[in-house]
C-alpha cells in the first residue's frame, strides 16, 4: 500500500496539482493537511473522478483542516480535539487492519516563548496531548502522518546553528518530539531509511526567490509507524520512501512537498 501525505495549503486552490499527483504517483491513500475549507466545500467530485471515492474530511472555513482520501473503502474513526479547541487538526481512519492518523500540528507563530506567544503555548500543549495519545495506542498497528511542524534533527534543517532559536527547531520543540517518538516506541520512517547525516527537507519557504537554488528547507512533514508495522514499513528499503520535491516547482505550488511510503 502506498500512503501519501501533503500539506496542500488550500485544496480547492490546488486541486489540479492534487489530481496531477494522484495520476503520476498513484497512492492508495492520500492524507491532506491545511485544506482550508468546510466539509461541504471539499472538492469531492474531483477526487471521485480521479479514482478516490472514499473520503474522511474534517474541515473549517478558511483555516487548518485535514482530509484522507482512498481508493479502497475506509472506516472513519473520527477526529479528536486537542487543547479544548475544535480547530480541525486530526482525522483517524481504518484501512485493512491498521489505523491511519492524519495530523496538522499548530505552527506556533514567530516567537518561541509560551509566556508571550499564545500560539507557541498552544503548540507545546498540542504536542503534550499528542504524546499522551500516541503512547496509549503504542501496541496497535498504526501509521501517523502529517505536517507536524517540527524538524527534530540537526540535518532536518538547512542550518542547525542558525535555526535553533527559530520556531520549528527550538530545543523545547525538538526534545518534545523526540520524547514523543521514544515514549510511544514509534519508528520515524524517514530517518530509519535516510542516514542522519544527510540533509532531508519537505518544506521550503515562499519567501525564497529561488527555493531550489537556496535550498533552505526544513523537514516538517513526517511518516511514523507503531512497532507492529515497523518491519513492513522498512522492508522496501530507502526506495520505498520518497519526498516528491518536483511538486514544489509546479504552478501555484504548496510550500510543502508530498511524501510517500510504500508499506
Describe the structure.
The chain has helices spanning 15-25, 44-50, 118-136, 160-163, 171-183, 189-193, 211-214, 230-234, and strands at 2-7, 29-33, 54-58, 66-70, 75-78, 90-95, 98-104, 142-147, 187-188, 203-204, 217-218, 221-225, 241-243, 259-262. The model has no long low-confidence stretch (mean pLDDT 97). It is built from 8 helices and 14 strands. It has a single domain, classed as Endonuclease/exonuclease/phosphatase (Deoxyribonuclease I, Chain A). It has a 6-stranded mixed β-sheet. The protein is globular. It holds the Pfam family Exo_endo_phos.
Total domains, how many? 1
The CATH class assignment is: Alpha Beta
| Outline | globular
* Proper CATH architecture: 4-Layer Sandwich
| Structural class by SSE content | alpha+beta
Question: What Rg is obtained from the alpha carbons, in whole angstroms?
Answer: 17 Å
Q: What is the CATH T-level topology?
A: Deoxyribonuclease I, Chain A
Mean pLDDT: 97
In terms of DSSP E residues, the strand content is 15-25%
Looking at CATH, the homologous superfamily is Endonuclease/exonuclease/phosphatase
Oligomer: single chain
Order of helices and strands: EHEHEEEEEHEHHEHEHEEHEE
The helix count comes to 8
Distance between the termini: 5 Å
Overall helicity: 25-40%
Number of strands: 14
Give the spatial strand order of the biggest sheet: 3-4-2-1-14-13
Q: Tell me about the biggest sheet?
A: 6 strands, mixed
Uncertain regions: pLDDT < 50 for 5+ in a row?
none
Amino acid at each position: 500500500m502506498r500512503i501519501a501525505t501533503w500539506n496542500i495549503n488550500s485544496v480547492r486552490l490546488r486541486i489540479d496539482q492534487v489530481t496531477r499527483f494522484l495520476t503520476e504517483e498513484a497512492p492508495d491513500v492520500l492524507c491532506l493537511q491545511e485544506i482550508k475549507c468546510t466539509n461541504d466545500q471539499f472538492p469531492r467530485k474531483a477526487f471521485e473522478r480521479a479514482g478516490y471515492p472514499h473520503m474522511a474530511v474534517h474541515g473549517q472555513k478558511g483555516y487548518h483542516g485535514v482530509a484522507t482520501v482512498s481508493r479502497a473503502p475506509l472506516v472513519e474513526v473520527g477526529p479528536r480535539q486537542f487543547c479544548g479547541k475544535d480547530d480541525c487538526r486530526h482525522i483517524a481512519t481504518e484501512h485493512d487492519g491498521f489505523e491511519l492518523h492524519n495530523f496538522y500540528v499548530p505552527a506556533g507563530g514567530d516567537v518561541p516563548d509560551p509566556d508571550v506567544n499564545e500560539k507557541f503555548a498552544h503548540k507545546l500543549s498540542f504536542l503534550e496531548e499528542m504524546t499522551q495519545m500516541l503512547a496509549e495506542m503504542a501496541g496497535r498497528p498504526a501509521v501517523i502522518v502529517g505536517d507536524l511542524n517540527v524538524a527534530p534533527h540537526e540535518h532536518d534543517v538547512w542550518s542547525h546553528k542558525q535555526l535553533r532559536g527559530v520556531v520549528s527547531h527550538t530545543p523545547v520543540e525538538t526534545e518534545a518530539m523526540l520524547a514523543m517518538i521514544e515514549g510511544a516506541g514509534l519508528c520515524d520512517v524517514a530517518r530509519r531509511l535516510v542516514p542522519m547525516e544527510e540533509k532531508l527537507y519537505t518544506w521550503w519557504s515562499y519567501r525564497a526567490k529561488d527555493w531550489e537554488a537556496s535550498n533552505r528547507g526544513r523537514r516538517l512533514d513526517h511518516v511514523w509507524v507503531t512497532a507492529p508495522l515497523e518491519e513492513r514499513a522498512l522492508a522496501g528499503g530507502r526506495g520505498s520512501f520518497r519526498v516528491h520535491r518536483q511538486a514544489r516547482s509546479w504552478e501555484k505550488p504548496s510550500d510543502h512537498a508530498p511524501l510517500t511510503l510504500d508499506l
